[in-house]
Each structure stands twice: as structure tokens, then as C-alpha cells.
Amino acid sequence: MPLTDDWRSDTQSRLERSLLFTRLKTLSDTDPAGHAAVDLVQEAAHYACHRTKTIVRHMGEFTLHDGDHLFRVLHLMERIAQVDIIDKLSIPELLLLCVSAFLHDIGMAPDERTVIAWKKTWDVNPEVDDCDEEEFHNFRRYCSARPEQEAQLAAFLEQGDNTAADLQKSYLISDYIRLTHSDRAKEIIQNDWMGKIRYRDVDLTVELAAICSSHNADPLTILEMDKHLLCGQDTFACLPLVAMLLRLSDLLDFDAKRTPEVLFSHLFVRHPVSLKEWNKHRAVEAWQIGPESIVFHAKCKHPAIEASVHDFCDLIDNELGACSNVAVQLNNISRDNGRDILIRIPFKVDRSKIETQKNISGKPEYIYRKTQFTLSKSQVIDLLMGTKLYGDPEVALRELIQNSIDACLLRAALEQSWGNSYIPEIVIRYSTGESGRVLTIADNGTGMDQHIIDTYYSQIGSSFYKSAEFYDMKSQSNAQFTPTSRFGIGILSCFMVADSMVVETRRVYAPHASSDPIELTIEGQESIFWIKPGSRKTPGTTTKLFLRKSKNPWEQMDEDSFISAVENVIPNPPFKITIEGQSKKRTRDQKSFRGLKASSLKDYSWERNPNVRELSFDFSDRKKGFVGSVIIALLEKRGSPVKSVEMRSRTVTIDDETYTLKKSIGISGKVIELHSSTITVDEDGDVEQSETTSHLANSKSRVSLHGIEVPTTLFPEQWNVQNNQVRLAWPFPALLVIDVCGSLDLDLNSSRTQILQGDKWAKFEDALAFEICTKISLAVAKPYWTKLYKVLSDGSKSSRFLRCLDVVNKKTSTSGRKRSYRKP
């Protein structure tokens, strides 16, 4: 036999040692159709073992899915079913068991053309053939649903670290293969095996594809398969029996493709344990399998190995419990059909033989305890709420509004992709009911179903808007918005102001499909959710907070004050929001923001003075990432920009004593100050001289992020800057009203009361500083700009602002007013 056929010879010899295969061959001696079944199994084994050799090309970490894994699955099927069951199986059942053992993981080995189509996702101008377009777009959607990995990949490419970038790409590809391998297996079976999996005149290819796909689905779904499929005269196949044996055997081989994080979370410790060592402990020979018990034998050299073994046994216990219920139903059906097949599956793994390896003295090499960090629910809630992480109780209102805005923006994108018209709207209502004051926030957004409630809404720290599920929907609908919900802990803030809340919700699924309505009642942050059928007719969510009188921040407000307080929370909403009191209501939308100017921030600290020049600018282009307005103050002397102005001093003589009166104006970063000396005469005639300082222009800001107020200042005093809080250190005072929108975003602390330093802030400050410097240069004469540039350069304490200023100055043309700028 040629050398290239060695693998085929090895596959054939391993098949000959299989009880299922030898039983199939025995039956074929009395049934001519059995010979074709034997040939099919041989062909499938050769095909699968050859194809799975390519898995390592794209999935280096997942070495568990080669030919060895396929034969281990076949061997485990035999040990679970036992000889007495195998002898009672029909030829179609034996055929399906053998072939499914070899083809169930075939989706882990996509063809090279498909992988090349995926990789074009990272091309600058990808050219994709029509036949590969669906694969290309599906993989691009998958990557778009993982923005953190995409951002990390972009960072590697920007740094020129192509090795790290290629590794990141390979991780994305391998994870995608793992998550989609069941569906791909069906496609491969359809392309390469359609019409070939036959017994007599019955084509079993579709049934085989369903069995292979089911090993990665909910175990109870296998009961939907045909339990008594007629395959010939007096010959039947129980498809759920085949599917159950496949999924149990696959899992008993410690299949890391389902939960690799369980493995790697333990193995990536300070002294990492090699995969080779792990493979020793997951070998099929470690199992002692019988109808009454399943025992796993292991002597572990490292606590990470032992913890991983126990975690996998937990998964197997869950599967055994589900499959035991399936087996009971199959046994009843078998008796009803006159078949003497009784399947017995233990409820759990016997772990008594999982031991810590001992040294020569017979003592354990380490003490195994499953001790790790855990969270106390009550103490975590106390930490979040009791230490005033949120602080201002009005944060509950902000959290609920931002959730509603996100839900409406997402639904708007979905409806547009479906070709439907949709007008988003939120209503905020403050009213008095039988139980006292009630704050209601109602929206017509995407709403929630039980899955969203269980997976995200009730899970503190788990935000739907940070999940791959959200980013997949966003990519699918081409939604162009950045969600304001961030941390998944906002629901706790509601209990700062309320003892209980009622949520009525219904989730939109498709153009004319939605979930059943749900009503939740939550009596405090540690209470059980009281869930019952709701009555809501249309998708969306309505949340009612039954306010605690002692903690209600709006208790002492009249209607006008309440409405104004809510308007401050939403200075620039992306669509209409209605605010209602008992008898009054007002609406706010993007048009309302146009009337909110920087001049509204003027107070006693911003006074008129002939030496102070004001420049006002509006920002209206959302494509730049912010909208709003700014007023800046420049100090002048005789019409030219300066850092300080010394007024002419005067001397005054009182009772033969001479006093010198001085006055000066200076610009120091965010403030212009007037310094003056004065004399006063008291009622006794005594003369006193003193120095006074007053503000002519002091910086103030009002900032919002995607329409929601961030109650902080961009100009804190140096001594009052906390933790990683941002601070604008520009060389002139400014009044700034700004909404960060569009493609720009900011990192906030968990209570949304501070903006944090980071790449997002740097990008925003660069954009804002460049825009302001550009507008100043265009608003003043060329000689004035030349002098002002020198003043601002000398007075700047911000390297970021100075860099933007230099870019604008260098790009200023020496003639004419038309200029071309490139952002730093």
C-alpha cells in the first residue's frame, strides 16, 4: 500500500476493533442492504479522519477534535449502550451511530475558501465573490458584535505589531468556528453527503444532519425527532436514542469546544499547566462506565487540573440528569413498540476516584479545596448603595431614561431595516396615586422578554448593551448609535428612591412579531421577581417607581420645578420626550438644545470689561462628534491680545499719609481676574488699605453624553480633581455647553457623575480644541492671530491643547482667508 494511504489503513484497523462496526458487519451477513451500510461507515470514517486533520490549521488550541476524538466518541457510545443494547439495535441505528460519531464535528473543519472569505473582513477594500458573500457578511457581523476584540486588533495594527494582530485574528476565527460548527456540519453533510446516507430505499441524510447538529443543542429537543422511523419492512430506527448516545459520548470525552473557558480559566494560572498534562487526565481510559454508575479516575498533579475535572463533571452531571429523563420516555416508547431495549443512565458522575497525587511518603502533594473568591449579594448591594456610589438619588431617573433612549434608538434601527415607519417616544410622568407618589417612565422601544430579563436585567453588572447579542443586532440593523447604558447596575439605583417598582414590558422580534407581555413586580433589591402575564398591547417598557417619601428628591418641588429638573437631565435627547406633572406637561427634543446657549452660564463671575473680548461659536455639525456652543474670553490692551494689563497707579494722601492705588487684570488659565488695592475709612476715621480680587471671566461648563446630562464640570479646581477625573487646562476662560454625540464617546464612572481620563477623552479633547482654535483663527485678523498664538502658547498648561494650537498655526496661510487644516 502506498505511503499516502497509511492513514486509511490505520482508520480501517481501528474500525475493525469497534463493537458497533463489527455488529453492523455481522448483521450484513443476513441482510444484503447491510453491506452498503458497512461501506458507508468506512467511507465516512476515512472522510472525517482526513478532513479533521485540517482543524489544527485554524484551531491550534482545540486539538480535541481530530480523528482520535472521533474514535473515542465511537468507543464511548459502545460503553454507554453496553453489549446487550448493541445486539438489539437495527442496521439503520448502527449505521447512524457510527456515521454520526465521525461527522458530528465535521463543521470544525471549514474549507479553505470559506476561511479566506472570512479573512477578507480585514481587507481595506474587500473583493468577495457572490458565492462567498454570505459567509463574508456573517463573519463580519460576528466580529462587529465583539467591539473589544476589534479595538484590540486595531490597536495592534496601529502599533505595527503584526504578530499580535494575526494572533487576534486567529482567535476570532477559531471562536467563530467553534460557535457555528453545528450549523456548518449540516451544510457540509448537505454538500458532500446528500442522498448518500441510505438504507435500502430510505434516504437518512436529513436525519443524520439533525442528529449531528443536535449534539450542541438543548438535550430535550432530541425528543422532537422520530422515535420509530420506518426504514424498511419490520425495520425501525429510534433517532432520539442515536442522538442521546452521541451527545453523552461527545461530552464524556471532556469536550472543550463547549466550555473552553472552564478549562482555560483554571489552567492560565501563575504556573500554567500544559495542555499535554490536561490531555492525560481527559483520556477516555479514565472512565469506568456501567448502567448503574459512571466513575472517573484521576490522580491530579495540580489544583488547576483537579478544579477543571470537577467543573467538567458538573457539566456532565447536568447532561446526565437531562438524558436520564429522555431515556425514561424512550424506554416507555420502546415497550409500546414491542422492542426489548431498556436504557439506564446514572444521574451523576461518581467522583470518589478523583484524587490528589501523593508523594513517596503517601501524603498529598497539595491540599485541594474549591476555595475561590465569591460575592456576598447583600454586602455588594450595600457597597454599591451604602457608600454613595450613586450619591445623588436623581441618578435613578437618569438611569431609567437612558435605558429607554437606547431601547428606542435600537428599535428605530430595526424598524428601518424592516422597512417600517416608527416614531420613538418617551413619557416621564410624576403623579400621585393610592400608594403615594409615583414616577413613571414609559417608552415604545424594543422592550424585554423573559430571556432579556433573566440574562441581563436581573443580573447586576451584566448590561445588554455591552453584550455580543446587542452588537449582533446593531450590526444586523446597521444601527448608528452609541448606547448610553454602560454598567448593568443602574436598576439598583431605583431603590435609592423607591421601595418597590412595577415593570410592564413586551419585546419586538420582527416586523409583525413580538413576545408575550410580561409584568414584573419587584419589592426591594433583594426580593424575588413576581412575574406574571402582562396586558401591554405594543412593544416597549413602562417602569413605575413607588417613591419613598423620605428619599424622594422631587417631594418638595412644584410641577414647574419638577419639569425643569427633568429637562436638565436630558438637555439634548435624540427624539421627543414628554414630561408630565399633575396638570402640566412640556416636551423636549433636539430642537430644544438649540436654545440652550453658552451665554446661559453667565453669572456674577462673568462681567463686562473693556479689556475683555468675547468670542462666541456654535457647533452644529454632529459628524464632528459634538454639538453646542462656547464663549471664550481674551484679555486685550489697546486692541491687542496680552496675558496681563497693568493699570496706571495713583497716589492718594490722607492726613499726611500717602497711599498707592493699583489695578491690574491678568489671565490665568480658566479665569481672568481683576486685582485692585482699595482704601477705606471707618467710622473712627481710621484709614485701611486692602487688596481685593474679583473675577471678570471664570470658566463653567455644562456637558451631556448622547443627550444625557453628566453632572460634572470640565474645569474643576486643581486641588479638587479626583481619581482619574478629566480637566480642561486651556489658556483662556470659556463658557461651554456641549453634547458629545455621533461617533465620539466618553468613559464615565459607574454613577455617571464624572468623565474619566482615557483614549476616548483624548480623542474628544483633541477634536474640541482643534475646532475652537480653528474658529478663533478665522474670527480674528492675521496680525491679531500672530500675537494671540504667542500669548496662548506661553499660557498653555495642556500639551494636548498646545499641539492642536500648533497645527492650526502652521496651517494658517500667509495670504487670504482660505485655509486647509488637518486634525492632529
Mean pLDDT: 85
Gap from first CA to last CA: 68 Å
Described by the principal axes of the CA atoms, the overall outline is: elongated
Poorly predicted segments = 255-264, 267-274, 817-821
Question: Topology, please?
Answer:
Elements: H1 6-16, H2 19-28, H3 33-51, H4 55-58, H5 67-86, H6 91-103, H7 112-119, H8 133-144, H9 147-158, H10 162-193, E1 198-199, E2 202-203, H11 205-214, E3 229-232, E4 235-237, H12 239-252, H13 260-267, H14 275-281, E5 287-289, E6 294-296, E7 298-300, H15 303-336, E8 349-350, E9 354-356, H16 377-386, H17 395-418, E10 426-433, E11 436-443, H18 450-457, H19 468-477, H20 490-493, E12 498-506, E13 508-510, E14 513-514, E15 518-522, E16 530-533, E17 540-547, H21 559-569, E18 577-580, E19 585-588, H22 590-594, E20 612-619, E21 626-637, E22 640-641, E23 644-646, E24 650-654, E25 657-661, E26 663-668, E27 671-681, E28 687-698, E29 700-705, E30 708-710, E31 734-740, H23 759-779, H24 782-795, H25 799-811
Parallel strand pairs: 6-8, 7-9, 10-18, 29-31
Antiparallel strand pairs: 1-2, 3-4, 5-6, 10-11, 11-17, 12-15, 12-17, 13-14, 15-16, 18-19, 20-21, 21-22, 21-31, 23-26, 24-25, 26-27, 27-28, 29-30
Helix pairs in contact: 1-3, 2-3, 2-6, 3-6, 5-6, 5-12, 6-11, 6-12, 7-8, 9-10, 10-11, 11-12, 12-15, 13-15, 17-19, 23-25, 24-25
Key phrases:
41% helix, 824 residues, eight-stranded mixed beta sheet, six-stranded mixed beta sheet, 31 strands, 19% strand, 25 helices, alpha+beta, elongated
